[in-house]
Amino acid sequence: MVEHPDMLYRPLGRTGETVSAIGLGGYHLAEQIDERLALRIVREAVDRGVTFMDNCWDYNDGASELRMGKALRDGYRDRVFLMTKIDGRSRKDAAAQLDESLRRLQTDRIDLVQHHEIIRYEDPHRIFREGGAHEALLEARDAGKLRFMGFTGHKDPHIHLHMLDVAAGHGVEFDAVQLPLNVMDAHYRSFEHMVLPRLVAGGVGVLGMKSLASGVILESGLVTATECLQYALNLPTSVVITGIDSLENLEQALEAVRTFRGLDEEQVGELRARTATAAGGGEFEPFKTTSVHDGTARNPEWLGAEPEG
What is the pLDDT of residues 14-29, one digit of tens each? Predict the structure, then answer.
């Protein structure tokens, strides 16, 4: 991958890979914009130095993966680190979803595949049981369909820690973990305080998400988009994934990286003090306090059949 002079690049944990500090979120590529704009956003991002591409099997009924697959043709695929996620909790369902993602993304190998929406305490046990989804990822890795493995979740830091514990009990160390990291998180059920130190200590690639909470944090009127992005960039993240649905939002994210010089303790303290009262009840992090963002709760069939007995 050719590095762009205006982009910041960071190691992805202990994988040996280097990725752009800003990653392009896949969900918004098919939520409210047309395909032509979506393809332009992806290619413009890559041309401007963004190498990390985020996606998921369930985003917009597969349209997000289909659009990204089209955008990454004509040599663009070789210029990015491609990630997607699967929801299936059984080996059968996970394998089928992964193969569908490969077809949509028009590639024979995905760089990072993650177990998506680990938001229930039973999720890790379903994934790591005999016949569970992790067997599918191991088989896919052996077959050359993926390179690295991880998981995502947005509900509660205790569940992230539980997933790490269950995985460790099965001898598994994830290559990357995706988690909410933003100025409000520091005050309420904090992934930054509870999960981030463990990931850093273990050399796990840290994929920050929900730095703006789809714009909800901006509705507080307390912080700007640039402050939100740079707060997340200031944490020990490998990449901060942000949803982009316009060329203006892409420029905003690129400018946040270009002007980032690091925040000192006083600047971080001021941002936290400014948001402390508003953040205390989780109002501006609805992914923690409601089921609005829980796609697998609204569509339990994505998880597959419950294990018997």
Answer: 999 999 999 999 999 9
Count of other CB atoms within 10 angstroms of residue 240: 31
pLDDT (tens digit, 9 = 90+) per residue, 117-151?
999 999 999 999 999 999 999 999 999 999 999 99
Show the CA angle centred on residue 191, arms to residues 52 and 291, nearest 5°. Answer: 85
Angle between the 63-71 and 35-47 helix axes, to the nearest 10 degrees? 50
Closest to 269 (Cα-Cα) out of 160, 183, 148, 156: 183
DSSP string covering 83-119, please? EEEE---BHHHHHHHHHHHHHHHT-S-EEEEEE----
Query: What residues form DSSP beta bridges with 149?
Result: 113
Q: What are residue 243's DSSP bridge partners?
A: 25
Task: Could you list the beta-strand ranges (E) of the chain.
Answer: 9-11, 18-20, 22-25, 52-53, 81-86, 110-115, 146-152, 176-180, 205-209, 239-243
